[in-house]
Amino acid sequence: MGELIAQWPFLRTWELARAHKRGEAVPVRWSQLREAAACAPHTGLHDLVEAAFTHERLRVLSPGRSMHWLTFSRRAAPPICHDLPRAMPLGSGRYRVRLADGRLHELGTAAETVVVILEGLPDGAFPRC
């Protein structure tokens, strides 16, 4: 990639692209998500992302955002997995979790939300190459 940029200076690259090439996309996606969430602490996303990040089982999954949902995937590149729970801040310290079967849970804290996410992970919810 560096050779292309050296040859054609108008090309740009992003840290996530370089991380994909190194096989380190998931940690970079977490870092970028945590930075973005820290810029909007009033939305509840920051608390949710930080609570999720404390759990190793979630840190190995690739985090993302789809509309207002915090998503998780076994893959760092699309297509994302649709069989993993997703969560959304609702405001006023409340959160919603959608499980793969469509069930919804409303919870009062980010920590409670993460517990429901962890309980909703299917067997074998780990990254696949």
Features:
two-stranded antiparallel ribbon; alpha+beta; globular; three-stranded antiparallel sheet; 129 residues
Description:
The protein has 129 residues and is of the alpha+beta class. It has one domain (25-120). Helix content is 40%, strand content 19%. It contains 6 helices and 5 strands; from the N terminus they run αααααβββββα. The strands form 2 sheets. The chain has a 3-stranded antiparallel sheet, covered by helices on one side. Strand 3 (86-91) and strand 4 (94-98) form a beta hairpin. Helix 4 crosses helix 6 (110-120). The protein is globular, with a radius of gyration of 16 Å. The mean pLDDT is 84.
Mean pLDDT metric: 84
List low-confidence stretches: none
Query: What is the radius of gyration computed over CA atoms, rounded to a whole number of angstroms?
Result: 16 Å
Main sheet, how many strands, which sense, barrel?
Answer: 3 strands, antiparallel
As for the number of domains, it is: 1
Tell me roughly what share of residues is in helical segments.
Answer: 40-55%
Distance between the amino and carboxyl termini:
22 Å
> What is the SS-derived class?
alpha+beta
The total strand number stands at: 5
Q: Tell me, briefly, the overall form.
A: globular
Major sheet: arrangement of strands: 3-4-5
Output the helix-strand order.
HHHHHEEEEEH
Put simply, the count of helices is 6
Strand fraction equals 15-25%
